[in-house]
Amino acid sequence: MSQLETAMAMLMQTFDKYAAVEGSKGSLSKAELKTMIEKELPSFLKGAKNQEEVDKLMKALDQNGDAEVDFSEFVIMVAAMTCACHDRMAQKQA
Predict the structure, then answer these.
(1) Is residue 22 classed as helix, strand or coil in its secondary structure?
(2) What's the confidence (pLDDT) of residue 37?
(3) Domain segments of the chain: what residues?
(4) What CA–CA distance (Å, rounded) separates 75 from 93?
(5) Which of 9, 17, 68, 92 could bridge across to 27 with cysteines, CB 3.0–4.6 Å?
(6) Residue 69's beta-bridge partner residues?
């Protein structure tokens, strides 16, 4: 697989790993989202240890209002974070 295909597969595997813990296997509950952020994004979202910050993130991500984050909403989060990191790196190099 190419690097991009590998990255896509890893996104799917990561989502499925945490979504499978409780409830629906097609979405992340608030608890699953918090655990995923703590384990997979510790340096990017240090505020995830604060429940209020997790609540804000969940509300922002949950576009359809079902109190869960589905795969499309998860991908939007990862893409937005990737863009922010890319912009930051470009500024440091300038």
Answers:
(1) coil
(2) 85
(3) 3-93
(4) 27
(5) 68
(6) 28
